[in-house]
Each structure stands twice: as C-alpha cells, then as structure tokens.
C-alpha cells in the first residue's frame, strides 16, 4: 500500500483527532493498492467513529482496513502444509 504523499499530511495533522476530522481533511486522497486504489475516506469509514492519538494510529487503521485489492493474491499462503502427493521442503537442523 502506498499513501501517495498523504502520509506526510497525516503526520502534520493535529492530534488527537477523530476519524471524522481526518476524512474531512484528507478523505479524497487515494491510497495505491496491489490491484487498484481506494479513497482514504472509504477505508476509515469502515471502522466508524474513532479517535487517533497520532499518525501511526491512522496508518495502522489504514493497513487493517484496505479492501481485498490491497493484499495481492487472495487466499494465497506460502505456509500451507504439503499434501501427501507433494514433496515438501527438506528439514534443516540449526
């Protein structure tokens, strides 16, 4: 996820602040996702009314709230166990 410069604006924003104030000031900014983009206001509206103590609180909420286009391949995991018909990785002893 890329914030397209809105991260600098969020860091300069006066805190503590509410999600309503962030949306009013920066809601039309877009965040670039793995497969598309999304309005910052749309992401924050999913969480309802919140109070943010600092910019990092906003960034955490944004990372948690982006739609499925923000996570790359859906339902993909490189941690799935191997099946009986597959050769799995060789065990390594440290």
TrEMBL record:
Name of the protein: DUF2795 domain-containing protein
Organism placement in taxonomy: Archaea, Methanobacteriati, Methanobacteriota, Stenosarchaea group, Halobacteria
InterPro entries: DUF5789 (IPR043899)
Record-linked Pfam families: DUF5789 (PF19102)
Source organism: Halorubrum californiense DSM 19288
Residue segments, region Disordered: 73-94
């Amino acid at each position: 996820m890329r914030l397209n410069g809105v991260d600098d604006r969020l860091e300069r924003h006066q805190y503590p602040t509410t999600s309503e104030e962030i949306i009013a000031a920066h809601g039309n900014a877009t965040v670039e996702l793995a497969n598309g983009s999304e309005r910052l206001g749309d992401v924050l509206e999913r969480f309802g009314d919140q109070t943010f103590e600092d910019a990092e609180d906003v960034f955490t909420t944004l990372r948690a709230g982006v739609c499925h286009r923000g996570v790359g391949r859906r339902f993909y995991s490189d941690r799935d166990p191997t099946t009986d018909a597959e050769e799995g990785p060789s065990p390594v002893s440290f």
